[in-house]
Amino acid sequence: MKLFNILLLWSSVLFTHVLADNTSIAYELIYFYYVYKFQWESGADKTIAVGCSAAYGTEEMCYFDEFAKYLIANGWPYSPTTDDHTKTPTASQATALNKDIPHSARFSLTKLMAAFSSEKAMTIVLERVLDAANTALDVEGYEPAKADLKQAIEMTQRAQAARYDKYNWLEDQALEDTAPDAAEYIVKDGANYDWDETFDKIDDAVNDDEIEYDEGETYKAELLNFSQNIDARVEATLTSQNKDITKTQKDGILEHLHIIRSLGTTTNELNEHVVAESDDSGDSLRAPSHCSSDNIEFGDSD
Ligand SMILES: *[C@@H]1O[C@H](CO)[C@@H](O)[C@H](O)[C@H]1NC(C)=O
Ligand SMILES: *[C@@H]1O[C@H](CO)[C@@H](O)[C@H](O)[C@H]1NC(C)=O
Fold first, then answer.
1. Ligand 1 atom closest to Cα of 13?
2. Please, where are the H alpha helices in 22-98?
3. C-alpha to C-alpha distance for 212 and 85, rounded to whole angstroms
4. Annotated region Disordered: where (predicted)?
5. Are 2 and 10 in contact (CB under 8 A)?
6. Which of the residue ranges 58-62, 133-137, 277-281 would you say has the lowest mean pLDDT?
7. Rounded to the nearest whole angstrom, what is the distance from the C-alpha of residue 139 to the centroid of ligand 2?
């Protein structure tokens, strides 16, 4: 995509409260619904969409269509079908949400989580929702339906892929701009750089005498530095492509990249609960998953 198009896109989301993206938002809502459901089922404190039941005059857990209607903002004409009146939503529930979705579709953050009383970055929203998911899934004796956990993970992957298509190529461009020789060895797994594979590939090239040992080490150092300075590199690329780009526009684009990484972290952490569940011992042996900041830094998905 041309930078010009990105800027147009960006200006249309600039003034929304949360950095929404209309191609990923339906999947994000379905993911949020599962976290809501995990809270109801596990007996953990309810923090997600706590006003939903009352909005429909019931004390039962909301169905997905009710949940979505409760959260989405005015100006988003949502007409759910009977299939959307479900407690096990899948990607097909995105169809009704996406029909006539406005350009800058949004949902209410304060209804999603009362703690969000003012504007919050989407990365923070994702972090809090992930904490809520981990807390519910860690409740002693609670096991969500495998299909539910699987759907929640699939939604974060789909949301990430939808956002990825628009912005992630910028990271590749930044790498190409600053370390063109090293860029050739990059291995990606979907939206994420696979640094282990990348470094192996460089080692192979050295072993096969395609490049000198010192060259290989230089490439690795460049890639390591890149992984630690992705924002600065992307900013440099944005500036080189458009001298007039504003700080706000650059920040907005970087925020999108951060959201993509947060969704990757979410997928990773939810996946740890799947592994724990298939462990027959019943006791969860996994390490605390709340501080895997490598994933954020490197955008690594597995
Ligand atoms: C989402 O918004 C973009 C512009 O930001 C627009 O071009 C596109 O048509 C919208 N998608 C839908 C499904 O309305
Ligand atoms: C690492 O990257 C930063 C940001 O692009 C750059 O300023 C710095 O010179 C790089 N350091 C090395 C050792 O290449």
1. 5
2. 25-42, 52-55, 64-71, 94-98
3. 62
4. 277-302
5. no
6. 277-281
7. 44
Q: Which atom of ligand 2 is nearest to the CA of 222?
A: 14
Tens of pLDDT, residue by residue over 74-124, are 778 999 999 999 999 999 999 999 998 888 788 888 899 877 666 567 888
CB 50 within 8 A of CB 114: yes
Report whether residue 22 contacts ligand 1, using a CB cutoff of 6 Å.
yes
* Ligand 1 pocket test target in 14, 21, 22, 106 with most atoms within 8 Å of CB: 22
- Single pTM value for the model: 0.77
Please write the tens of the pLDDT for every residue from 195-229.
999 999 999 999 999 999 999 999 999 999 999 99
Measured CA angle at 162 (ends 160, 167), to 5 deg: 85
**Cβ pair 144, 137 in contact under 8 A:** yes
d(CA 199, CA 216) in angstroms, rounded, equals 9
- The answer to whether 163 touches 252, Cβ cutoff 8 Å, is no
- Taking the alpha carbons at both ends of the chain, their separation in whole angstroms is 27
Task: Write the single-letter amino acid at 17.
Answer: H
- Give the ligand whose atoms come closest to the C-alpha of residue 8: 1
